[in-house]
Amino acid sequence: MSKGFYKNRRLKSFLFLSVCFLVALIPHVYNIEGFFYLILTLSLVIVLYGLIVISRNLKRNNISNTFSNGVRNKELPVLDILVAARDEENVIARLVDRLFSLDYPTNKLNIYIIDDGSSDNTPLILDRLSRKYEKLKVVSRSPNAGGGKSGALNHALKFTHGEWLLVLDADAQLKQDSLIRLFSFVEEGDWSAVQLRKSVTNLNKNFLTSCQSMEMAMDAIFQYGRLSVAGVSELRGNGQLIKKDTLLACGSFNEDTVTDDLDLSLRLLLSKSRIGILWDPPVMEEAVENLNALLAQRQRWAEGGLQRFFDYGDQLVTNKIDILQKFDLTYFFILQYALPIISIFDLFLSLALIDSPIYWPISITAFMLSGIAFWYGSSCKSEVPVLQKGNFLMIFISVFYLSHWFLVIPWVTIKMSIFPKKILWRKTLHTGI
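Above: the chain sequence. Below: its structure as tokens.
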């Protein structure tokens, strides 16, 4: 995209930040009669819709995810698995070995590993693996090829010829029969894309990894509920299956965003393509194990999440999507992006003006809904445990853990409003342990 486009994002970020500041400021400066009751009413609306979304998972629990009848080999489509790998020497061999052991007809499965300018031993390992597995396709890019992960995936698209694409991260782990069951789910739901629920392999490593495990389950609970209520769902990068023709019709992967999955999710919604959410079998991955890595990861997610709304906001307010979808997107945009900024401004203004915070009922409502989704996601039957020992204390602490978003979102929005963005691939370190 052009430099003007980036300036446009900066302008939209600044306007969004300014609106949030005004929303926080006005009730502190002007005594608006009945304003607190308006806040309570909004909190009630938020909790009602949130509970409706979460409750839709009761229906999911009554549907078998095993698909025992499955699909016959002759009905299975040609599948291309794409893995963009940069400096993945710790996990790439394990991934390739496991991919070639999956239950799927060998004549219908192609595995592409994109070595995207690795500076470690990843190229040497891939060279060895290509001699071990004749069908392994290694695609190489130079370190300065550009486009980040999206650029790597788009480069590999030129070599694919399957009907479906499965995008995995280098630390991904799948169950033996995941692909068969995945296409059984596709056949029953007639989806254009499917996102496997993400789960954590190192959930017992420390407090942060346990919280991320619960957070992923919570996310899947909301995703399934939103899909059931409003027809809105999102891809999550790792474990996303998409029909190749649908992807090409949407313009492939966007190389001018830091989160290709979130960007693609909105473009699929605008094109009326349906994204299914599959609880089991999950795709397993490593959670980050320290605070610095977590905050770096969350800043990238926050920036990408805002970028997509700034880029496609004009289309979202038109008639390209229906009223309920607009309501759902507005609801989660406010809770995920606007509320953290407004709450921080509200807190600082309260301290500066020696006043009481005003928006605390909405914040408490949001945390309460997260806690319910945490509890429900942790207690749901799952092939991979969300927690080894779930308890209400852990759920309470994990809800407090979510408060980091109330720092990340405002900080990222301020940076987006001031600094021009250069698209870089800031990968998450995978240890393979």
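The chain has two domains: 3-60+316-418, 71-219+234-295.
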